[in-house]
Please model this.
Amino acid sequence: GTSYASLIQQNKRLLFAKCSSLTGCQNSYSDDAYKTTSPAPVLAALKATVNTPATWTVLQLQGTSTATEWGLMQVVTKSDASSPLLGTKAKFDNVTYKWLANPATASTLTNAGLTIALNDFVDNALASVCADLTSRR
Model:
């Protein structure tokens, strides 16, 4: 892996965000909502989060399938071809990215401070959705 010192020497930007009620942050994550292979409870948590006033907001777009029986079975196989995260990524991204890209979502974030959209694997699609969301805000 790359050390922090190496990243800093390369003039890379590093952002550390400590989300807690003490920092005025509203986080969409909860163990109950995110322990799933279905995007529905995650989407409900996202919608509830954007409607809660906060200084800044973290929107976590990927479920924690490893906390489910299905996810545990993927880990136990120890196969290079199995990944609980990649096994659900397309399903989650299809729902959460569409929601984040929806103009109605942008309007709920208009008066909010910093908004961070997290995904375990950030890709060009998320970068594009976030750039568009930023320009709408």
Summary: Strands lie at 25-27, 56-60, 115-118. DSSP finds seven helices and three strands in the chain.
